[in-house]
Specification:
alpha/beta; Rossmann fold; 4-stranded parallel β-sheet; two-stranded parallel ribbon; 9 helices; 33% helix
Length: 270
């Protein structure tokens, strides 16, 4: 597993087959000590991936690779995502045994669709450099697919779960001045679905791109008003005169459900 942040640590804990073991990487010394003690981790590695990194000795020992890295800040976007993807592709050259590769991408790759529905075949309307990088990373990894290597891209919505609850987000936004009128649809993905879907994709050797989001898509204003009302705190304030720089799309999850995956947290209320 490349990356042991919020998703990676949860995946180590939730993995169902007790006979499977992980090689796990991290970029921080403190996290290295945590994963070293994890019963599922057979080998832990402190690894900052650069253009010169050779991942082949690590990947050659694995039957599956899960890439769930995350940048520390906006400036690290390309270094974190694209450099990792290029290094993985280089390590897979000449591989002659089966491998399942899963990468956690983002629904942000669709760009701005003015609130309309999108699926895995929809055009990408890039509104930022970030979207272009996400698309390039996906294409880099998809180019690794062949008769031996299965590549599955999971496009995630806004991640929430333990220690990252929507209630906590609502508390942070309470009374805050927000740009726009809040009419953009939201797309969310619970941590439990991320870890479950990763395992499902590996077990079923899924190939290609799949959106992984819940069934609920309330607009931003509706969502945070509802959450703040439940918590008994003032909702955010919306400024219709300010220009909102965000993407807007309603993301379909029909494809992954058609593949047989059953959502663990289909709605925001469970």
């Amino acid at each position: 597993m490349i990356g042991t942040g919020y998703v990676g640590i949860a995946l180590l804990t939730s993995w169902s087959n007790p006979n499977d073991h992980f090689l796990a990487t991290t970029t921080t010394e403190s996290k290295l000590e945590i994963i070293k003690r994890h019963k599922r981790v057979q080998r832990s590695i402190l690894l900052n991936i650069t253009e010169e990194s050779d991942l082949k000795p690590y990947i050659d020992t694995c039957d599956a690779v899960v890439i769930c890295v995350a940048p520390k800040n906006e400036a690290n976007y390309s270094d974190t995502y694209l450099t990792t993807a290029i290094s993985v592709r280089r390590a897979l050259i000449g591989r002659d045994k089966p491998l399942a590769l899963v990468y956690t991408s983002s629904t942000g790759v669709y760009g701005d669709h003015k609130g309309g529905w999108v699926d895995e075949n929809s055009d990408q309307h890039f509104s930022s450099k970030r979207g272009e990088i996400l698309s390039e990373v996906e294409n880099t990894l998809l180019s690794c697919a062949n008769a031996q290597i299965d590549v599955c891209i999971l496009r995630l919505g806004g991640i929430y779960g333990p220690s990252r609850t929507l209630d906590e987000r609502a508390r942070r936004l309470s009374t805050r001045q927000m740009e726009g009128i809040g009419g953009e649809p939201t797309n969310h993905t619970h941590l439990q679905d991320i870890t479950s879907a990763i395992e499902f994709c590996i077990q079923n050797r899924l190939n290609g791109i799949y959106n992984l989001v819940g069934n609920d898509h309330p607009c931003r204003k509706e969502l945070y008003t509802r959450l703040c009302t439940k918590l008994g705190i003032p909702p955010p304030k919306w400024d219709a005169t300010s220009e909102l720089s965000t993407t807007s799309a309603c993301v379909s999850n029909k494809k992954i459900q058609a593949a047989g995956y059953i959502l663990k947290r289909p709605t925001l209320d469970n």
